[in-house]
Amino acid sequence: MNEYADIFKALGDVTRLRILNLLLQAGKKLCVCEIVDALHLPQYRVSKSLALLKNSKLVTVAREGTWVYYGLNPELPPFFKAIFSLMKKHFQDVFSDDAGKIHSRLALRENGKCVIGFKCNEKK
Amino acid sequence: MNEYADIFKALGDVTRLRILNLLLQAGKKLCVCEIVDALHLPQYRVSKSLALLKNSKLVTVAREGTWVYYGLNPELPPFFKAIFSLMKKHFQDVFSDDAGKIHSRLALRENGKCVIGFKCNEKK
DNA sequence: TGCCTATATGCTCTTTTTTGCATATAATAT
DNA sequence: ATATTATATGCAAAAAAGAGCATATAGGCA
Fold first, then answer.
1. Of all helices (H) and strands (E), which one includes residue A25?
2. Which of A16, A92, A96, B107 is deepest in the core (most CB within 10 A)?
3. So what CATH class is A3-106?
4. Out of A2, A17, A86, whose CB is closest to B5?
């Protein structure tokens, strides 16, 4: 199909937008349980959204032991890098709760690493 | 759902992206037959894409007699205006044929108005 | 080895989107 | 009216996306 359409399609979903926003606002790689906890969404849903974002090359993955960290792909074409910086700026207000939650969650890290699982089992 | 996700979804389709690109590169309102001609797509497909873009508030419509002109919505929120200017810049290369075609088509206008229908009946 | 925790994925059901065709509407001219 | 041209839209089939649940995999540790 078309590279640009595909990426816009990947952006056309609230869960995925919220995940990307977390990564943007946190400014660092996040592990899956941190995202699950911040978004209050079922784990399988977060994992599936992350899988799609990874297929679209928007995020990259790095496993560290049991934990898996996702980060924004630093090798994105300039066009989408520009869109990401727009999102970073504008989404602060749109998903403001999420940003707060991820920051409290990040405060629980030890030596910069996630050491707890997710406490949130809410089905939304 | 979510305003941003909805608009990204509207951008997640090649036909719609190509239409928006025409509007961006032309810098003026275009009538449906001009778009059909430039994109070499069936008329119903262009009309349906335009209808969706209109529902997403990305474009506006103005009928002038038999002809209907579509233009970029000047009242978009700043976030999407910014995305549009990114698209205008970057899509010049991506859909370069389209831009050439719409310019030759626009050369056929008289007094700034479209005076011919579409000559292209191609099914792709 | 076996168990626990973190994460991924297969499967099914449901909902949305896309595609194509045929037809409807709208405006103009005869 | 009727015909013609421009545009929109209803409908049905096909394809794709989303939601939920259950289960699989993978790594760490007893």
1. helix A14-26
2. A16
3. mainly alpha
4. A17
User: What pLDDT shows up at residue B119?
Assistant: 62
Q: Is the CB of A52 under 7 A from strand C?
A: no
Helices (H) and strands (E) in chain A, counts: 6, 3
Q: CB contacts < 8 Å between A and B, how many?
A: 57
A61 touches strand C (CB under 7 A): yes
Please report how many Cα atoms fall inside a 13 Å half-sphere around the Cα of residue B77, on the Cβ side: 10
Mean pLDDT of A94-101: 96
**What are the two backbone dihedrals, phi and then psi, of residue A30, each rounded to the nearest 5 degrees?**
-125, 145
Q: What is the pLDDT of residue B118?
A: 66
Distance from CA of B60 to the nearest CA of A (A): 21
What are the tens digits of pLDDT across the range B49-104?
A: 999 999 999 999 999 999 999 999 999 999 999 999 999 999 999 999 999 999 99
Distances (CA, A) of B65 to A58, A73, B53, B93, B115: 46, 50, 22, 35, 11
CA-to-CA dists, residue B70 to A29, B56, B113, B117, angstroms: 43, 13, 13, 15
Q: Counting beta carbons within 10 angstroms of the beta carbon of residue B84, is it exposed (0 to 12), middle (13 to 18) or buried (19 or more)?
A: middle
| Domain B3-95, architecture per CATH | Orthogonal Bundle (1.10)
Query: Do you know the residue count of chain A?
Result: 124
Could you tell me if B61 and B54 are in contact, meaning their C-beta atoms sit under 8 angstroms apart? yes
Q: Is the CB of B90 under 7 A from strand C?
A: no
Quote ipTM for the complex: 0.93
